[in-house]
Automatic annotation (TrEMBL):
Entries under CDD domains matching the protein: RRM1_HuC, RRM2_HuC, RRM3_Hu
Protein name, entry field: ELAV-like protein
PANTHER family assigned: EUKARYOTIC TRANSLATION INITIATION FACTOR 3 SUBUNIT G
This protein's GO CC annotations: ribonucleoprotein complex
PROSITE patterns: RRM
Chain ranges of the RRM domain: 40-118, 126-206, 284-362
Record key words, sorted: Repeat, RNA-binding
Pfam families: RRM_1
Gene that encodes the chain: ELAVL3
DNA sequence: TTAAATT
Protein backbone atom coordinates (compact mmCIF):
# COMPACT_ATOMS: atom_id res chain seq x y z
CA UNK A 1 0.00 0.00 0.00
CA UNK A 2 1.26 3.42 -0.88
CA UNK A 3 1.38 5.87 1.97
CA UNK A 4 1.91 9.54 2.43
CA UNK A 5 2.46 11.96 5.22
CA UNK A 6 0.03 14.67 6.18
CA UNK A 7 2.71 17.25 5.62
CA UNK A 8 0.34 20.19 5.69
CA UNK A 9 -0.54 19.27 9.22
CA UNK A 10 3.06 19.29 10.35
CA UNK A 11 3.21 20.74 13.82
CA UNK A 12 4.94 24.07 13.55
CA UNK A 13 6.22 24.24 17.08
CA UNK A 14 9.20 26.52 16.89
CA UNK A 15 12.16 25.03 18.62
CA UNK A 16 12.66 28.58 19.78
CA UNK A 17 15.84 30.42 20.60
CA UNK A 18 16.68 30.09 24.26
CA UNK A 19 15.77 33.39 25.86
CA UNK A 20 18.73 33.80 28.15
CA UNK A 21 20.32 36.84 26.55
CA UNK A 22 19.31 40.45 26.25
CA UNK A 23 21.92 41.27 23.62
CA UNK A 24 20.42 42.05 20.19
CA UNK A 25 22.71 40.65 17.50
CA UNK A 26 26.03 39.11 16.67
CA UNK A 27 27.92 36.27 18.31
CA UNK A 28 26.76 36.09 21.90
CA UNK A 29 28.98 34.99 24.73
CA UNK A 30 27.43 33.28 27.71
CA UNK A 31 28.80 33.26 31.26
CA UNK A 32 30.83 30.10 30.69
CA UNK A 33 32.55 31.59 27.68
CA UNK A 34 30.76 29.45 25.09
CA UNK A 35 29.25 31.22 22.08
CA UNK A 36 25.46 31.38 22.17
CA UNK A 37 24.22 30.47 18.70
CA UNK A 38 20.60 29.94 19.77
CA UNK A 39 19.44 32.90 17.64
CA UNK A 40 21.60 32.16 14.60
CA UNK A 41 21.68 28.36 14.37
CA UNK A 42 18.88 26.61 12.47
CA UNK A 43 17.91 23.01 11.94
CA UNK A 44 16.44 22.15 8.57
CA UNK A 45 14.31 19.03 8.27
CA UNK A 46 12.64 17.06 5.46
CA UNK A 47 15.27 17.85 2.86
CA UNK A 48 15.10 15.87 -0.40
CA UNK A 49 17.24 12.74 -0.21
CA UNK A 50 19.39 13.73 -3.20
CA UNK A 51 20.15 17.28 -2.04
CA UNK A 52 23.88 17.91 -1.75
CA UNK A 53 25.87 19.99 0.71
CA UNK A 54 26.48 22.49 -2.10
CA UNK A 55 22.79 22.85 -2.93
CA UNK A 56 22.01 23.15 0.75
CA UNK A 57 24.56 25.92 1.18
CA UNK A 58 23.40 27.66 -1.98
CA UNK A 59 19.77 27.68 -0.81
CA UNK A 60 20.48 29.09 2.65
CA UNK A 61 23.34 31.29 1.49
CA UNK A 62 20.84 33.18 -0.66
CA UNK A 63 19.39 34.62 2.57
CA UNK A 64 22.58 35.95 4.15
CA UNK A 65 26.13 35.25 5.21
CA UNK A 66 26.56 31.78 6.65
CA UNK A 67 28.96 31.17 9.53
CA UNK A 68 28.79 27.41 8.98
CA UNK A 69 26.41 24.82 7.59
CA UNK A 70 26.24 21.07 7.46
CA UNK A 71 24.10 18.55 5.70
CA UNK A 72 24.04 15.58 8.07
CA UNK A 73 25.07 12.30 6.47
CA UNK A 74 25.24 8.67 7.49
CA UNK A 75 28.74 8.05 8.84
CA UNK A 76 29.15 4.78 6.95
CA UNK A 77 27.25 5.16 3.69
CA UNK A 78 27.57 8.92 3.26
CA UNK A 79 23.84 9.10 2.46
CA UNK A 80 22.02 12.26 3.45
CA UNK A 81 19.93 11.80 6.58
CA UNK A 82 17.51 14.42 5.26
CA UNK A 83 18.35 17.18 7.67
CA UNK A 84 21.04 19.74 8.29
CA UNK A 85 22.15 22.79 10.22
CA UNK A 86 22.77 26.36 9.16
CA UNK A 87 24.45 28.86 11.46
CA UNK A 88 24.19 32.45 10.22
CA UNK A 89 26.53 35.29 11.11
CA UNK A 90 23.55 37.58 11.76
CA UNK A 91 20.51 36.50 13.78
CA UNK A 92 18.31 38.64 11.51
CA UNK A 93 19.22 36.34 8.63
CA UNK A 94 18.28 33.28 10.69
CA UNK A 95 14.91 34.89 11.32
CA UNK A 96 14.57 35.73 7.62
CA UNK A 97 15.46 32.16 6.63
CA UNK A 98 12.66 30.81 8.82
CA UNK A 99 10.18 33.30 7.41
CA UNK A 100 11.06 32.77 3.75
CA UNK A 101 12.22 29.14 3.51
CA UNK A 102 10.13 27.27 6.09
CA UNK A 103 7.49 25.36 4.17
CA UNK A 104 9.38 25.61 0.88
CA UNK A 105 8.49 22.75 -1.46
CA UNK A 106 11.54 21.00 -2.85
CA UNK A 107 10.69 18.04 -5.06
CA UNK A 108 8.42 15.78 -3.01
CA UNK A 109 9.32 17.35 0.33
CA UNK A 110 8.15 20.36 2.28
CA UNK A 111 11.16 21.54 4.23
CA UNK A 112 10.96 22.73 7.81
CA UNK A 113 13.25 25.49 9.04
CA UNK A 114 13.39 26.21 12.76
CA UNK A 115 15.83 27.22 15.46
CA UNK A 116 18.04 24.36 16.58
CA UNK A 117 17.74 23.51 20.23
CA UNK A 118 21.04 23.37 22.11
CA UNK A 119 22.53 19.96 21.37
CA UNK A 120 22.12 17.61 24.30
CA UNK A 121 21.80 13.91 24.99
CA UNK A 122 18.45 14.56 26.70
CA UNK A 123 16.74 15.50 23.41
CA UNK A 124 17.94 12.44 21.48
CA UNK A 125 15.86 9.30 20.94
CA UNK A 126 12.67 11.09 21.94
CA UNK A 127 10.65 9.86 18.97
CA UNK A 128 7.72 7.49 19.43
CA UNK A 129 5.96 5.10 17.06
CA UNK A 130 2.25 4.77 17.73
CA UNK A 131 0.02 2.10 16.16
CA UNK A 132 -3.52 0.91 16.66
CA UNK A 133 -4.90 4.46 16.63
CA UNK A 134 -8.61 4.82 15.81
CA UNK A 135 -8.86 5.66 12.09
CA UNK A 136 -11.00 8.65 13.02
CA UNK A 137 -8.37 10.18 15.32
CA UNK A 138 -6.90 13.40 13.94
CA UNK A 139 -3.37 14.63 14.37
CA UNK A 140 -4.63 17.27 16.77
CA UNK A 141 -6.44 14.67 18.87
CA UNK A 142 -3.35 12.49 18.97
CA UNK A 143 -1.31 15.48 20.15
CA UNK A 144 -3.87 16.22 22.86
CA UNK A 145 -3.54 12.64 24.05
CA UNK A 146 0.26 12.82 24.26
CA UNK A 147 0.76 16.44 25.33
CA UNK A 148 0.07 15.58 28.98
CA UNK A 149 3.52 13.94 29.04
CA UNK A 150 5.57 16.83 27.69
CA UNK A 151 6.31 19.28 24.89
CA UNK A 152 5.67 17.81 21.45
CA UNK A 153 8.15 18.86 18.74
CA UNK A 154 6.44 17.11 15.82
CA UNK A 155 3.58 14.73 15.23
CA UNK A 156 2.32 12.84 12.20
CA UNK A 157 -0.34 10.40 11.21
CA UNK A 158 0.34 8.20 8.20
CA UNK A 159 -2.47 8.01 5.67
CA UNK A 160 -3.25 5.93 2.62
CA UNK A 161 -2.21 7.95 -0.41
CA UNK A 162 -5.22 6.99 -2.49
CA UNK A 163 -8.06 7.21 0.01
CA UNK A 164 -6.45 9.71 2.39
CA UNK A 165 -7.74 7.67 5.30
CA UNK A 166 -5.61 7.22 8.42
CA UNK A 167 -3.55 4.05 8.66
CA UNK A 168 -3.87 4.19 12.42
CA UNK A 169 -0.12 4.68 12.64
CA UNK A 170 1.69 7.81 13.76
CA UNK A 171 4.79 9.41 15.23
CA UNK A 172 5.23 11.73 18.18
CA UNK A 173 8.54 13.46 18.84
CA UNK A 174 8.91 14.89 22.32
CA UNK A 175 11.34 17.61 23.37
CA UNK A 176 12.96 15.28 25.90
CA UNK A 177 13.62 11.55 26.01
CA UNK A 178 12.22 11.35 29.56
CA UNK A 179 8.91 12.73 28.32
CA UNK A 180 8.78 10.01 25.67
CA UNK A 181 9.53 7.36 28.29
CA UNK A 182 6.69 8.63 30.48
CA UNK A 183 4.31 8.63 27.51
CA UNK A 184 5.12 4.97 26.84
CA UNK A 185 4.46 4.08 30.48
CA UNK A 186 1.22 6.02 30.50
CA UNK A 187 -0.24 5.20 27.08
CA UNK A 188 1.12 1.90 25.75
CA UNK A 189 -1.66 -0.69 25.82
CA UNK A 190 -4.25 1.91 26.81
CA UNK A 191 -7.52 2.62 25.01
CA UNK A 192 -7.95 6.27 24.01
CA UNK A 193 -11.28 7.73 25.17
CA UNK A 194 -14.03 6.16 23.06
CA UNK A 195 -11.68 3.76 21.23
CA UNK A 196 -12.40 0.05 20.99
CA UNK A 197 -8.78 -1.11 20.70
CA UNK A 198 -5.69 -0.32 22.80
CA UNK A 199 -2.83 1.56 21.16
CA UNK A 200 0.81 0.49 20.99
CA UNK A 201 3.39 3.14 21.95
CA UNK A 202 7.09 2.45 21.64
CA UNK A 203 10.33 4.15 20.61
CA UNK A 204 10.50 4.62 16.86
CA UNK A 205 13.13 2.88 14.78
CA UNK A 206 16.09 5.04 13.99
CA UNK A 207 15.85 5.41 10.20
CA UNK A 208 19.61 5.69 9.80
CA UNK A 209 20.09 2.19 11.22
CA UNK A 210 19.27 0.23 8.09
CA UNK A 211 19.90 -3.46 7.68
CA UNK A 212 22.66 -4.61 5.36
CA UNK A 213 20.04 -5.94 2.95
CA UNK A 214 18.21 -2.61 2.86
CA UNK A 215 21.48 -0.82 2.17
CA UNK A 216 22.32 -3.13 -0.72
CA UNK A 217 18.84 -2.66 -2.18
CA UNK A 218 19.20 1.08 -1.86
CA UNK A 219 22.64 1.10 -3.50
CA UNK A 220 21.31 -1.00 -6.37
CA UNK A 221 18.36 1.32 -6.90
CA UNK A 222 20.41 4.51 -6.83
CA UNK A 223 23.14 3.29 -9.19
CA UNK A 224 21.19 1.13 -11.68
CA UNK A 225 19.49 3.97 -13.55
CA UNK A 226 22.81 5.62 -14.45
CA UNK A 227 23.64 2.73 -16.77
CA UNK A 228 20.53 2.59 -18.91
CA UNK A 229 21.22 2.14 -22.61
CA UNK A 230 20.99 4.68 -25.43
CA UNK A 231 17.59 6.04 -26.41
CA UNK A 232 15.69 4.89 -29.45
CA UNK A 233 16.45 7.04 -32.48
CA UNK A 234 12.82 7.83 -33.27
CA UNK A 235 12.31 9.07 -29.74
CA UNK A 236 15.26 11.39 -30.04
CA UNK A 237 13.71 13.18 -33.00
CA UNK A 238 10.57 14.04 -31.07
CA UNK A 239 12.72 15.20 -28.24
CA UNK A 240 14.76 17.43 -30.51
CA UNK A 241 11.57 19.21 -31.60
CA UNK A 242 10.67 19.62 -28.02
CA UNK A 243 14.08 20.99 -27.15
CA UNK A 244 14.01 23.52 -29.94
CA UNK A 245 10.57 24.66 -28.88
CA UNK A 246 11.68 25.16 -25.36
CA UNK A 247 14.97 26.81 -26.24
CA UNK A 248 12.94 29.52 -27.93
CA UNK A 249 10.23 29.68 -25.32
CA UNK A 250 7.54 28.06 -27.44
CA UNK A 251 4.95 26.05 -25.53
CA UNK A 252 5.13 22.36 -26.28
CA UNK A 253 2.89 19.44 -25.35
CA UNK A 254 3.84 17.96 -22.01
CA UNK A 255 3.35 14.48 -23.45
CA UNK A 256 6.51 14.88 -25.51
CA UNK A 257 8.64 15.59 -22.51
CA UNK A 258 10.58 12.77 -20.95
CA UNK A 259 14.10 11.95 -19.96
CA UNK A 260 17.16 12.26 -22.14
CA UNK A 261 20.78 12.82 -21.40
CA UNK A 262 22.91 15.96 -21.72
CA UNK A 263 25.21 14.08 -24.12
CA UNK A 264 22.29 13.42 -26.46
CA UNK A 265 21.35 17.09 -26.36
CA UNK A 266 24.87 18.29 -27.09
CA UNK A 267 25.19 16.10 -30.18
CA UNK A 268 21.72 16.98 -31.46
CA UNK A 269 21.98 20.69 -30.91
CA UNK A 270 25.32 20.96 -32.66
CA UNK A 271 23.80 19.10 -35.63
CA UNK A 272 20.86 21.48 -35.70
CA UNK A 273 23.11 24.51 -35.46
CA UNK A 274 21.53 25.63 -32.21
CA UNK A 275 23.80 27.34 -29.80
CA UNK A 276 22.63 26.18 -26.40
CA UNK A 277 24.79 27.25 -23.51
CA UNK A 278 22.27 25.94 -21.00
CA UNK A 279 24.22 22.70 -20.71
CA UNK A 280 27.40 22.63 -18.68
CA UNK A 281 29.19 20.36 -16.24
CA UNK A 282 27.49 22.32 -13.46
CA UNK A 283 24.03 21.44 -14.80
CA UNK A 284 21.40 23.08 -16.96
CA UNK A 285 21.20 26.86 -16.86
CA UNK A 286 17.70 28.29 -17.21
CA UNK A 287 16.90 31.88 -18.16
CA UNK A 288 13.94 33.43 -16.34
CA UNK A 289 12.59 36.69 -17.73
CA UNK A 290 9.97 39.21 -16.55
CA UNK A 291 10.61 39.05 -12.83
CA UNK A 292 9.44 42.05 -10.80
CA UNK A 293 11.96 44.61 -9.46
CA UNK A 294 11.25 43.24 -5.96
CA UNK A 295 12.03 39.62 -6.89
CA UNK A 296 14.64 37.84 -4.79
CA UNK A 297 16.34 34.45 -4.78
CA UNK A 298 13.65 32.81 -2.66
CA UNK A 299 11.13 33.36 -5.46
CA UNK A 300 13.32 31.33 -7.83
CA UNK A 301 13.77 28.56 -5.25
CA UNK A 302 10.03 28.43 -4.73
CA UNK A 303 9.29 28.28 -8.46
CA UNK A 304 11.91 25.73 -9.51
CA UNK A 305 12.53 23.68 -6.35
CA UNK A 306 9.48 21.44 -6.77
CA UNK A 307 10.71 20.22 -10.17
CA UNK A 308 13.97 18.67 -8.99
CA UNK A 309 17.57 19.31 -7.97
CA UNK A 310 18.34 23.02 -8.13
CA UNK A 311 22.01 23.81 -7.56
CA UNK A 312 21.95 27.57 -7.84
CA UNK A 313 19.67 30.55 -8.34
CA UNK A 314 20.61 34.12 -9.18
CA UNK A 315 18.56 37.28 -9.46
CA UNK A 316 20.29 39.90 -11.60
CA UNK A 317 20.18 43.27 -9.85
CA UNK A 318 20.98 46.83 -10.81
CA UNK A 319 24.27 47.80 -9.25
CA UNK A 320 23.05 51.13 -7.86
CA UNK A 321 19.40 50.48 -6.94
CA UNK A 322 19.86 46.80 -5.98
CA UNK A 323 16.47 46.11 -7.63
CA UNK A 324 15.99 43.09 -9.88
CA UNK A 325 16.61 43.98 -13.52
CA UNK A 326 13.73 41.75 -14.57
CA UNK A 327 15.55 38.49 -15.03
CA UNK A 328 17.51 35.76 -13.33
CA UNK A 329 19.08 32.34 -13.77
CA UNK A 330 18.46 28.93 -12.28
CA UNK A 331 20.79 25.94 -12.54
CA UNK A 332 19.31 22.46 -12.39
CA UNK A 333 21.26 19.20 -12.30
CA UNK A 334 19.04 16.92 -14.37
CA UNK A 335 17.85 17.60 -17.88
CA UNK A 336 14.41 16.07 -17.56
CA UNK A 337 13.65 18.02 -14.41
CA UNK A 338 14.85 21.27 -16.01
CA UNK A 339 12.74 20.55 -19.10
CA UNK A 340 9.67 19.91 -16.98
CA UNK A 341 10.26 23.13 -15.02
CA UNK A 342 10.58 25.13 -18.25
CA UNK A 343 7.51 23.53 -19.83
CA UNK A 344 5.49 24.25 -16.70
CA UNK A 345 6.78 27.70 -15.81
CA UNK A 346 7.14 29.32 -19.23
CA UNK A 347 4.01 31.46 -19.58
CA UNK A 348 3.32 31.13 -15.85
CA UNK A 349 1.64 34.14 -14.30
CA UNK A 350 3.54 35.49 -11.30
CA UNK A 351 1.53 38.36 -9.84
CA UNK A 352 0.70 40.56 -12.82
CA UNK A 353 3.59 39.30 -14.93
CA UNK A 354 3.86 36.45 -17.42
CA UNK A 355 7.18 34.67 -17.03
CA UNK A 356 9.34 33.69 -19.97
CA UNK A 357 11.38 30.63 -19.10
CA UNK A 358 13.80 28.82 -21.37
CA UNK A 359 17.18 27.18 -21.43
CA UNK A 360 19.83 29.85 -21.41
CA UNK A 361 21.12 30.53 -24.94
CA UNK A 362 24.21 32.34 -26.14
CA UNK A 363 21.87 35.24 -26.90
CA UNK A 364 21.16 35.84 -23.23
CA UNK A 365 24.82 35.40 -22.51
CA UNK A 366 25.65 38.26 -24.87
CA UNK A 367 22.77 40.39 -23.60
CA UNK A 368 23.67 39.95 -19.97
CA UNK A 369 27.37 40.28 -20.59
CA UNK A 370 26.82 43.69 -22.12
CA UNK A 371 23.98 44.58 -19.78
CA UNK A 372 21.67 45.14 -22.71
CA UNK A 373 18.46 43.84 -21.12
C1' DT B 1 1.68 -2.54 6.98
C1' DT B 2 7.76 2.62 10.92
C1' DA B 3 8.99 8.35 8.26
C1' DA B 4 14.86 10.61 7.39
C1' DA B 5 15.05 15.83 14.09
C1' DT B 6 20.55 17.45 17.17
C1' DT B 7 26.18 18.46 14.15
Amino acid sequence: MVTQIISTMETQVSNGPTSNSSLPNGPLISANGATDDSKTNLIVNYLPQNMTQEEFKSLFGSIGEIESCKLVRDKITGQSLGYGFVNYVDSNDADKAINTLNGLKLQTKTIKVSYARPSSASIRDANLYVSGLPKTMSQKEMEQLFSQYGRIITSRILVDQVTGVSRGVGFIRFDKRIEAEEAIKGLNGQKPLGASEPITVKFANNPSQKTGQALLTHLYQTTARRYTGPLHHQTQRFRLDNLLNMAYGVKSPLSLISRFSPITIDSMTSLAGVNLTGASSAGWCIFVYNLSPEADESVLWQLFGPFGAVTNVKVIRDFTTNKCKGFGFVTMTNYDEAAMAIASLNGYRLGDRILQVSFKTSEEFVKTKHGAI
